[in-house]
# Entry
Amino acid sequence: MSTHYDALIVMGFGGPTSMDQVEPFLKHITGGRITAERMAKVSEHYAHFGGVSPLNGQNQKLANDVAARLRDKGIDVPVYLTHAHVAPFPEQTLAQIVADGHERALVLVPAAYPSYVGCRSYREALAAATPVDDEGRPRLEIAKINPFYDMPAFVDAQIGLLEPVVRAHPDAKLLFTTHSLPTGLSETSGVGGDGYLKQHHRVIDQILAGLANKGLRPDWQLCYTSQGGAPGDTWLTPDVNDVIDELATQGVKEVIAVSIGFLSDHMEVIWDLDNEAAQTARGHGMGFYRVPTVANEPVFLDGLAELVARGLAGEDRRGDDDCGGEDCCPNPGGAVPAVRGVTP
# Structure
């Protein structure tokens, strides 16, 4: 089957593969704005896993799973994996794509919600890494798929994972968790601002409606993990551990945690939830149940492959409220060139 784009790139956040890579990785993602205290704390998290983040392997698996589903549809394009913060970096990957003779590449970033760090920063990195000819013209046409919080399969997968856990623990408090952001980045996210929180709440509303259709109506709250940053930054709250502490004072006996902000069980899930939040709950004698993320769910992967297939065909239904233009998720440091975003 012919496509408009002749290559697909899965561009992940990236993570270290050894303890020697942890410090440069953390400096790269923060632009060097990380305190010695924060560096030591996060390095300790990675040390529990030998310095190896599971994220790179998870994104490779995601790329393989999507590629297999595309082939089932008769779409056989090469799939490349690149990372924002560890090698292979975009400049390496895009140079290889050009060397392999490709002219147009579509990019999938495994991030469902808009923000500068989860949307525009990737578009900027791709623009900066695009090879040019002797006259400065791009040698590769690139577009990035916009955040896909509204993909039905994303919500369907969450409902399918949550239903048996909620049914088994009907009195548990359901904690929807996601990555905290600096409040300034949250306020400017999406088109017109506040897209990050608005879209999380839309997803939550759809999940709750799906559970209600199955006779399940849990009490719930949205809370955050992975707060970091430089001194003086203010971040979205409440932290999941603070919420669990408060629930304990209210006599809550069980909590269910589901990470709707991440697609796979990477470091900020297996440490922040499976370790820290679980310990907080158990310290209060509370039951703690963590629902898997969606990355391995067939319904999610089928939906994601269908989204990518439409994108590869050149479909773009981007509306005024969608990311992908100059008016979404602005760089707090000022305007920087970015590749366009598309909404297949």
Strands lie at 7-12, 79-83, 104-108, 141-145, 173-179, 220-225, 254-259, 287-291, 340-342. The CA atoms of residues 116 and 329 lie 5 Å apart. The chain has two domains: 7-149+297-342, 152-291. The mean pLDDT is 96.
